[in-house]
Design a protein that fits this description.
Chain A is mostly helical. Chain A is about 70% helix and about 0% strand. The N and C termini of chain A lie far apart (about 50 Å). Chains A and B meet through helix 3, helix 4 and helix 5 of A and helix 3, helix 4 and helix 5 of B.
């Protein structure tokens, strides 16, 4: 990585990371979308994933807290509204996620307490927030680029989960439908920012590492779910145990 | 400070800190509002104060990045919009501050570069951002409580500066007029939060210290201006020199 890449070459490298490492490749997702999990396992997935969803606005605020560029803050802040909601008309992605966990029969206070989440989930999620707090701004932006690969997984999830689970109804899948509309614009903006601002070999290597790191954050969460709830099914102390 | 205070006693202590330490007591403000400064000195004040204004959204984002409570984030985020602006209809407080520096004949790019600001200004401002990043959430909220005392100084500033300086016109004072409408609600919200959440002697001592700290952040900026531009007028290297 000693030679500088053109912006287009950098984009190709970023996309190659997604093709190899995005969590749609994880066997837990194949099981989830293919109808191979029972309701308890889907509950475990939704309850753990809440930790990630609820951390995203903190991550975006952390990015803004490091940003001296007013225009970039103005362009970024809608991400916080997208997740936290705004006023009465926009409930936000976290609320929509809780509609999913409600629909799965989980107690909302229990989900929000995160007491039943796997420690590995919490560690991964907080590592992501910390990464954005501590790394350079362009690395922080680059770590959001998993959104480039999200629409495909959301589409698979909507169709696969609706088709394969009788305990999943259309109304609880609104989170994913909304993200299909939001993620592409966010990803395009972040990709453009990274291509314009990673202009040395060192910075280009750093943004590629940032995307690998973020893929690891997502992958590690599915590893933990697989281990705790599928095979070998070793649920750690205090973690959620399906009824 | 070993005895727990009632919320009302805590409020009295917080207000006593403002009465003793808020920067409306600083001689530089008396000079500023009383028409005792020349245009160059007012330029120096406005240019240095830009550093503070432009850091406020980073401070508020830092607070939100530490906040696990979605409702509190939803209640806080308008502060970022108040300063950064939102869409075309709301220019934001930073833009309004730049209208003031424009009106004073300062080059906007030079102001925004902060290259002419006093090092002591930058140190104080960044200490504030760091405080909010590192201290407890209730201390971070408490550090915003200088807003309790702001409306009085804004009113004095509007009338005093308009009356006393022929180079200050009504249209450049919009920043202060808008803050007269914004600050009281923000201060009331933060005061209520602090009174409800500082419920041990240790936490109450910490929030009082947080407000003292914030008063120091403001006071130190005026000390630096006084020293560099009034008496003895020792302007440090690279700092703005009035024409």
């Amino acid at each position: 990585m000693t030679k500088i890449m053109s912006p287009e070459e950098l984009e190709d490298e970023l996309r190659a990371i997604g093709a190899a490492r995005y969590h749609d490749k994880h066997p837990f997702h194949t099981l989830l979308h293919g109808g191979k999990l029972n309701k308890g396992q889907v509950q475990a997935w939704a309850l753990n994933r809440y930790c990630y969803q609820s951390a995203v606005p903190r991550k975006d605020a952390a990015l803004m807290s490091r940003c001296y560029d007013r225009q970039l803050r103005r362009d970024w802040i809608h991400r916080i509204h997208d997740h936290d909601g705004e006023g009465k008309e926009e409930e936000g992605g976290i609320e929509r996620w809780l509609v999913l966990t409600d629909g799965l029969g989980l107690d909302r206070d229990y989900v929000m307490s995160m007491k039943g989440a796997l420690p590995a989930t919490r560690f991964a999620v907080e590592a992501y927030v910390r990464f954005v707090q501590e790394k350079s701004l362009v690395e922080a932006v680059a770590s959001s680029l998993t959104e480039l690969f999200a629409p495909k997984i959301h589409k698979e999830r909507i169709s696969g989960m609706l088709e394969n689970y009788d305990f999943i109804s259309d109304d609880v899948m609104q989170y994913f439908r909304r993200r299909l509309a939001q993620a592409p614009d966010d990803a395009a903006f972040a990709l453009d920012y990274v291509k314009r601002n990673a202009r040395t070999p060192e910075t280009q290597a750093a943004v590629l590492d940032a995307l690998r790191f973020k893929c690891n954050v997502l992958w590690a969460q599915l590893d933990a779910l697989y281990h705790a709830y599928y095979d070998p099914g070793l649920t750690p102390p205090d973690a959620f145990v399906p009824a």
